[in-house]
UniProtKB/TrEMBL annotation:
Listed InterPro entries: 2Fe-2S-bd, 2Fe-2S-bd_dom_sf, 2Fe-2S_ferredoxin-like_sf, 2Fe-2S_ferredoxin-type, 2Fe2S_fd_BS, Beta-grasp_dom_sf, Diverse_Oxidoreductases
Record key words, sorted: 2Fe-2S, Iron, Iron-sulfur, Metal-binding, Oxidoreductase
UniProt-recorded name of the protein: Carbon-monoxide dehydrogenase small subunit
Gene Ontology molecular functions: 2 iron, 2 sulfur cluster binding; metal ion binding; oxidoreductase activity
Organism name: Catellatospora citrea
Gene3D superfamilies in the cross-refs: 3.10.20.30, [2Fe-2S]-binding domain (1.10.150.120)
Domain 2Fe-2S ferredoxin-type: 1-62
Protein origin, superkingdom: Bacteria
Length: 144
C-alpha cells in the first residue's frame, strides 16, 4: 500500500471490500461513505496513510456477517434500492443519522442525505426507508 492512495482504493482494490462505490472521486456524491473512527466520511477524500491504525467501518461491517442491519433491511423493504450504486453510501449515512437522531424529522433526513446523490430515484423510497428504520418497523421477515 502506498500511503497516498485513497482509502476508497485500498478498501476496494487491496482489501476486496467493494461495498463502497467509486463514482466522483471528489467527495460530491457520497457513494463511498464509510465510518472513520465513528465519523461518516467520503473514503475517496481520505489518504490511506491517514486511516492507518484507525477504525474504519464500511457498509459490509454494519451487521454481523450473514445478517443485515435494520437500515439495510429497511432499504430493501421500502424498495429504496434501484441500480444500487448510491445505496451503500446512503445506508452508512442513514445509519449515522439514526445513531445521532433516533427519530429524525423529514428536514433532518434531507439534510443528512444532502451529500448523497442518487440518479435513479426521486428520493421518496429512500425517505420511506429512513422513516421505516427510525420507526422500528423493520423485522427479519418484513414490515411490522
Amino acid at each position: 500500500m502506498w500511503p497516498g492512495e485513497s482509502l476508497l482504493y485500498v478498501l476496494r482494490e487491496r482489501l476486496g471490500l467493494a461495498g463502497s462505490k467509486n463514482a466522483c472521486e471528489q467527495g460530491e456524491c457520497g457513494s463511498c461513505t464509510v465510518y472513520l473512527d465513528g465519523t461518516a466520511v467520503c473514503a475517496c477524500l481520505v489518504a490511506a496513510g491517514q486511516a492507518a491504525g484507525r477504525d474504519v467501518r464500511t457498509v459490509e461491517g454494519l451487521a454481523p456477517e450473514g445478517e443485515l442491519d435494520p437500515v439495510q433491511r429497511a432499504f430493501l423493504q421500502a424498495g429504496a434500492v434501484q441500480c444500487g450504486f448510491c445505496t451503500p453510501g446512503l445506508i452508512v449515512s442513514v445509519h449515522d443519522l439514526l445513531a445521532r437522531v433516533p427519530k429524525p424529522t423529514d428536514p433532518q433526513i434531507r439534510e443528512a442525505l444532502a451529500g448523497n446523490l442518487c440518479r435513479c430515484t426521486g428520493y421518496e423510497k429512500i425517505m420511506d426507508a429512513v422513516r421505516l428504520a427510525a420507526a422500528g418497523g423493520v423485522t427479519e421477515t418484513g414490515i411490522r
